[in-house]
Amino acid sequence: MALFYRRQGESGFPSADGTVFTADMIHMYEYGGRLRMSPLFSNRQSRAGTLVTASMCTAIAVVFSVIGLYIPVFSTLVFLIVPIPIAYMCLMGNMKWGVAVCVAVLLLDSLLFGVMSGAFASSVFCLLGLTLGYGYRKKYSAATILALGTLVSAAVFGAQVFFASAFMGFDPSLFAGKITPDMQQQMDSMLSAVYSGKELEAARAQSGPMLEMVIRAIPFSLFLVSLFEAWAPMLLCRIIFRRLGIYDIPYFQPFRGWQIPVTVIYIYIGVVVLKLALQGLGITSVMWDTMILNVSLVCMWMLWLQGISFLWWCREYKPKWGSWRWPVLIASFLIPLVNYAVAGLGAWDMLTGYRKNTEQGQ
């Protein structure tokens, strides 16, 4: 059985006798020279058939959102499946049908669990489904779709924080790097239950800067969460859509070939220079310190990712170096010095273009 999937204007695959076929969002199955078109993948599908498909996608998304709300341990993993039927509807129908499925899922979740628990939990994943479907229809690159998904996830979280601060009394200063009085009180009570006297004072002196650093790094943690929420549905869409015979879904090249722009190094140098300049001028600001810290963390993370990609590339071109990739990866999570060394390796690879030069030389 041969599967064909092409949009209008794109070249198709040759059949057994050499004939080339093209189709407009049509799946064709060849059985001994006879062709049959599956109406599920045709844009000439009737309105009633499209409505049935949209209803099925809505039911699938609602079922997985219900499972995610009822099983908190696996809620994040289950919710990652919610964008898939919405993206599928955008791809097989159009964006209007995708929006209709998204709205239906949010309404049903709100009716079943209430607006706060239902719609709030499902909103980010429904919008991610629309983002994926839009990117797939526009033939955007995988990196562009990932960037859009990350921005959507971060924007939805920001809107939820704004809503919570405006109507529920939530203190948003936590995301600006400030320790709230409630957090300080909870930390003091925890330390008081373990230490006393001089030991308590020493523990407070040590835990204070550490807690402040953790609080200021919250935006970086949210960036990683938003990135994961955008990347995981892309991976699941690629796997599931290929099962359905949809093969032209953009995705990333193999990890060993990743090349992060060298601009990251220049941004990191600029942030370091800015920090030194503020210190020289005697300017102290929690907001500036928080921004500098999080931008530098993002840059260091990208350099680390480039270094790990280089080690995976060594598996093919430098086997002796590549044999250390797993021990180095594990050690980079446990030992800060190894983490910095991997980031330095990534920066060296960016500046010298070692991988590209080696491949061209061979």
Task: Record keyword descriptors for this entry.
about 350 residues, mainly alpha, disordered N terminus
- Average pLDDT, rounded to a whole number, is 79
Oligomer classification: single chain
What is the terminal separation in angstroms?
Answer: 39 Å
**Proportion in helices:** over 70%
Spatial order of the strands in the main sheet?
A: 1-2-3
Number of strands: 3
Structural class: mainly alpha
- Low-confidence runs (pLDDT<50, min 5 residues)? 1-44
How many separate helices?
15
Radius of gyration: 25 Å
Sheet with the most strands, sense and barrel status: 3 strands, antiparallel
How is this structure best described in words?
A three-stranded antiparallel β-sheet has the order 1-2-3, with no helix packed on it. Helix 1 (47-70) runs antiparallel to helix 3 (83-92) and helix 5 packs across helix 9. Mean pLDDT is 79; it is low at 1-44. It is mainly alpha-helical and 362 residues long. It has helices spanning 47-70, 75-79, 83-92, 95-113, 115-137, 142-167, 181-192, 198-216, 218-243, 263-281, 286-317, 319-322, 325-334, 336-352, 354-361, and strands at 2-6, 26-31, 34-38.
